[in-house]
Write a structure and sequence with these properties.
The structure holds 2 protein chains of 2 kinds. Chain A is of the alpha+beta class. Helices cover 53% and strands 8% of the residues of chain A. In chain A, helix 1 links the parallel strand 1 and strand 2. The longest helix of chain A has 31 residues. Chain B is α+β, with helices and mostly antiparallel strands. Chain B contains 10 helices and 4 strands, in the order βαβαββαααααααα. Chain B has a 4-stranded mixed β-sheet with strand order 2-1-3-4, with helices on one face. In chain B, helix 4 runs parallel beside helix 7. Classes of the chains: A alpha+beta, B alpha+beta. Chains A and B meet through strand 4, helix 3, helix 4 and helix 5 of A and strand 4, helix 3, helix 4 and helix 5 of B. Chain B: It catalyses: RX + glutathione = an S-substituted glutathione + a halide anion + H(+). Chain B: It comes from Pinus yunnanensis (Yunnan pine). Chain B: This is glutathione transferase.
């Protein structure tokens, strides 16, 4: 059976989310580099896979799939029974996984990706960091993390006492927030968030992926 | 068995999404009104259900759940086999449903809901609609709809030739864009998007709202 093909970019948070999930599920894959720096993601060949022109996209037999969070759910469902269980054990637990996945996608991701974009990406493109935007989004992110702090004081992981897609979704951006943006205090100043971060970021499946995300 | 309780507001797009889904799945529910104008959603009683202080939240027996897109996935999964099938017929179709649900949540909803916010919420709070912000977000919505136009020229609905959660997710916001914000031309100027919209907005469940 042909291995799953992942079209992505080594520094992309969304790509690394998918690679981490493949590792957790012990699924083989081939990595196809889409070099964002040369605009490969906007060329017809890639747009034929993903008309939104963003990475990653996967191919699994006849199925072409994009949107990293949808890819995660597909892999977690298709490969249920091998590797780490990422969807909880019951329908109610699965619902809570989806709830905290949505929280990541709707409340955590917008501010954190703005911070990372302003600090990491904008200067590399010749612009200058909008400090006001960074400050505003640090405040937003802080409010979200306060809710996480309360949640994680009662629950080992976000969806319950089990690691799941919801925790996994937070890995790539939080990694950049700490290691490349110098905003680690947002995590380390919150006791339970910090303990949760130490736990999930020390998973070997993640450490392998984090190698792709070293920033000069 | 106790009915599902939906805590929400009848005008909230996220609440309407959940109610629509319950009706498609033919599931009985009771609606507990959360008075947003009175700030109920920020009171301890509601925050105990949803610490983010937004509507809706549902209670189904012991389970309390928030985030409308997670709620509808839960309902579509739990009630598989009754009402409308909303997840496709196999793992691959379900993956495509999920993909287009993410497109709605990540690419369509942010600009569309910003237009709604500027049009409806800002004036209620005593401010003035920022037309430059509206214009910028209409441009973003239009770029997304161009991709939908291409997709819907090859597929009856977003995930395939079957109605799904992905189409459902677009109903509440698009209805307001057309009927409240006067932006109907973004839909009606695109042949296949227009046909798709006519189809999904005329489903009996949707017409009852």
């Amino acid at each position: 059976m042909a291995a799953i093909k992942v079209h992505g970019f080594h520094a992309s948070t969304a790509t690394n989310m998918v690679l981490c999930c493949l590792n957790e599920k012990q699924v083989e894959y081939d990595f196809v580099l889409i070099d964002l720096l040369t605009g490969a993601h906007k060329k017809p060949q890639y747009l034929a896979l993903n008309p939104f022109g963003v990475v990653p996209t996967i191919q699994d037999g006849d199925l072409t799939l994009f949107e990293s969070r949808a890819i995660l759910r597909y892999l977690a469902q298709k490969f249920k029974g091998q590797g780490t269980d990422l969807l909880g054990s019951t329908l109610s637990e699965e619902a809570l996984v989806y709830q905290w996945c949505e929280v990541e996608g709707q409340s955590f991701n917008p501010p954190v990706s703005t911070i990372v974009s302003q600090i990491l990406v904008v200067p590399r493109r010749g612009g200058s960091t909008d400090e006001a935007a960074v400050e505003m989004n640090i405040e937003k992110l802080g409010k979200v993390l306060d809710i996480y702090e309360e949640r994680l004081s009662k629950s080992k992981y976000l969806a319950g006492d089990f690691f799941s897609l919801a925790d996994l979704q937070h890995l790539p951006h939080t990694h950049y927030l700490i290691s490349a943006c110098g905003k680690g205090d947002l995590i380390s100043s919150r006791k339970h968030v910090n303990a949760w971060w130490e736990d999930i970021s020390s998973r070997p499946t993640w450490q392998k992926v984090a190698e792709n995300m070293k920033v000069n | 068995m106790a009915m599902i309780k939906v805590h929400g507001h009848h005008l909230s797009t996220a609440t309407r999404l959940v109610l629509c889904c319950l009706e498609e799945k033919q599931v009985d529910y009771e609606l507990a009104f959360v008075d947003l104008s009175a700030g109920d959603h920020k009171q301890p009683q509601y925050l105990a259900l949803n610490p983010f202080g937004v509507v809706p939240s549902i209670q189904d027996g012991d389970l309390t759940l928030f985030e409308s897109r997670a709620v509808i996935k839960y309902l579509a999964t739990k009630y598989r086999g009754q009402g409308t099938e909303l997840l496709g017929n196999n793992v691959s179709e379900q993956a495509l449903v999920d993909q287009w649900c993410e497109v709605e949540g990540q690419s369509f909803n942010p600009p569309a809901s910003t237009i709604l916010f500027q049009t409806f919420v800002v004036p209620i709070k005593g401010g003035r609609t920022d037309e430059a912000v509206v214009k910028m977000n209409v441009e973003k919505v239009v770029k997304v709809l161009d991709i939908y136009e291409e997709r819907l020229s090859k597929s009856k609905y977003l995930a395939g030739d079957f109605f799904s959660l992905a189409d459902l997710q677009h109903l509440p916001c698009t209805e307001y864009l057309i009927n409240g914000c006067g932006k109907g031309d973004v839909i009606s100027s695109r042949k296949h998007v227009k046909a798709w919209w006519k189809d999904i907005s005329s489903r009996p469940v949707e017409e009852s709202h």
